[in-house]
Structure formats: C-alpha cells, structure tokens
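pls design
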C-alpha cells in the first residue's frame, strides 16, 4: 500500500509540475481546494486522476479493503447482537428496522446531509448507522 501511495504521489506531482491541473464540475484543482480537505477536494482529485492507471489501481485496492472491513464489521455486529439476545439484553422478536437508501453520487456533503435529515422521523427518536 505504501508503494502504491508513493506511485500515486509521484503521478500527481508530475501532473502538477507539468502544469496539467484539471477542472472538475466547475471546481479547479488548486492549492486552496486541496487545503480545504472536504467533499469538493475529494471530487476534484478524483476527477483530476480518473484516467490515471496508478490512481485506478490504488482506488480499487482501497475499495477492496473498505469492503473487507465492512464485511468483517457486519459479522462482528451480528455476533454481538446474537450474544445480546442470548443474554436477554435485546428481545429476540424485535422487528427488523426500516432502511432508507441515500444516493450520494454526485452530491455534496451538505446535499447528502439534507437528504438524510429529511428522511429522519419528525417525532420520537431514531438510530442512524
């Protein structure tokens, strides 16, 4: 992973030194955008490097790691819930929760947050995972 990160950094560095800074969905990849470290930064970097083979390989590797960790977390959560049911901490007949899908593709963090907030119950409480 360190080698891939170094290759990716070299690829970015060469594009910057050659003056090939790109524009993405009206957001230029500038030092100011990079310093912000927000959703616009992520979008600008992804758009800037979308055709770079090193970036593509690195992204796939990172995605595989995230999916593996998520799967592992899901198994641990299921085991924890099972133990809680056996100990009587959680009821065994609890109905499954209602899940709401939120499409985040192409949206800013603020747009996603607004969509999530709009789907939350207006009264009572809720658990959001």
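designed seq:
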């Amino acid at each position: 992973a360190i080698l891939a990160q170094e290759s990716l950094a070299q690829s970015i560095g060469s594009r910057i030194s050659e003056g090939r800074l790109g524009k993405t969905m009206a957001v230029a990849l500038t030092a100011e955008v990079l310093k912000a470290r927000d959703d616009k930064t992520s979008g600008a970097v992804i758009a800037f490097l979308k055709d770079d083979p090193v970036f593509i390989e690195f992204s796939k590797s990172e995605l595989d790691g995230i999916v593996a960790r998520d799967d592992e977390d899901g198994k641990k959560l299921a085991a924890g819930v099972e133990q809680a049911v056996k100990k009587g901490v959680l009821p065994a007949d609890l109905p499954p929760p209602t899940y709401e899908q939120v499409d985040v593709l192409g949206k800013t963090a603020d747009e996603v947050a607004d969509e999530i907030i709009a789907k939350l119950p207006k009264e009572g409480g809720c658990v959001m995972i």
